[in-house]
């Protein structure tokens, strides 16, 4: 479950009278008010982790400066999106090319593994069924064929191969060397030309899967005079 949290700070002393809290400026340690979307009032505002309302247990009056100290935002970007949802694959003795499309969503390595299987088995040409395993020890995906027969072969095109020889796919799908819209980075299908498998031998991804699409998010605010 995703959630968003804010921490608001101000230098204060406090005077407590009943259920009323008065906060005034001083040189003492600052007070902090923590807002957590999981503690929101249900049914108010948008009632979501990004649009919510809270209810304080008692009123708070602040004199002096009050500012947002910390903002915690979950990484909720999709792993697979419209610009990175394709697996480029050729199959069978005829080396027939096709695009396997992974459903858009936010996935961990195990959830992405299952989505790879669904995508590869949709409109497949081989007789067997595709299977995919995530190997913890090596941090790699392994793609294989279950219940296959002779002639069940496949090649998944790596990102490097697509960029060097992508013109072979021009008649299949619209793409450029700079924009393949592939899911190769997320799946760990990067280095080399292709990863090849048969009904006997599996194909091992050359790279580790990368299911976190964005590593850094820079925010700038003028709140608090910063």
Observed structural traits:
single chain; 226 residues; three-stranded antiparallel β-sheet; 3 helices; elongated
How would you characterize the overall build of this protein?
The chain is mainly beta. Helix content is about 10%, strand content about 30%. It is built from three helices and 13 strands, in the order E-E-E-E-E-E-E-E-H-E-E-E-H-H-E-E. It has helices at about 110-120, 160-165, 185; strands at about 5-10, 15, 20-25, 30-35, 60, 65-70, 85-90, 95-100, 130-135, 140-145, 155, 195-200, 205. A four-stranded antiparallel β-sheet has the order 8-7-11-12. A three-stranded antiparallel β-sheet has the order 4-1-6, with no helix packed on it. Strands 2-3-5 form a three-stranded mixed β-sheet, with no helix packed on it. The longest helix is centred in the middle third of the chain and has 13 residues, at about 110-120.
Radius of gyration: 26 Å
Largest sheet: 4 strands, antiparallel
Q: Strand fraction band?
A: 25-35%
Number of strands: 13
What is the element layout, followed by pairings?
Blueprint: E1 5-11, E2 13-17, E3 20-24, E4 30-36, E5 60-62, E6 67-72, E7 86-91, E8 96-101, H1 109-121, E9 129-135, E10 140-146, E11 153-157, H2 159-165, H3 184-187, E12 194-198, E13 203-204
Parallel strand pairs: 3-5
Antiparallel strand pairs: 1-4, 1-6, 2-3, 7-8, 7-11, 9-10, 10-13, 11-12
């Amino acid at each position: 479950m995703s959630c968003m949290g804010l921490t608001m700070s101000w230098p204060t002393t406090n005077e407590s009278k009943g259920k009323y809290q008065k906060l005034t400026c001083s040189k003492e340690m600052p007070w902090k008010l923590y807002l957590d979307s999981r503690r929101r009032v249900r049914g108010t505002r948008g009632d979501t982790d990004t649009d919510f309302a809270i209810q304080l247990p008692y009123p708070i009056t602040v004199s002096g400066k009050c500012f947002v100290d910390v903002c915690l935002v979950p990484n909720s970007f999709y792993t697979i999106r419209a610009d990175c949802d394709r697996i480029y694959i050729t199959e069978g003795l005829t080396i027939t090319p096709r695009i396997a499309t992974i459903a858009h969503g936010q996935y961990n390595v195990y959830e992405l593994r299952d989505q790879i299987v669904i995508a590869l088995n949709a409109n497949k040409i081989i007789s067997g069924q595709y299977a995919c395993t995530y190997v913890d020890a090596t941090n790699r995906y392994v793609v294989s064929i279950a219940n296959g027969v002779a002639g069940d072969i496949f090649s998944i095109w790596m990102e490097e191969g697509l960029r060097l020889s992508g013109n072979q796919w021009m008649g299949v799908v619209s793409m450029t060397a700079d924009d393949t819209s592939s899911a190769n980075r997320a799946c760990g299908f990067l280095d080399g030309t292709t990863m090849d498998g048969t009904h006997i031998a599996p194909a091992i991804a050359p790279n580790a899967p990368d299911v976190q699409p964005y590593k850094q998010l820079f925010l700038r605010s003028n709140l608090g005079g910063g």
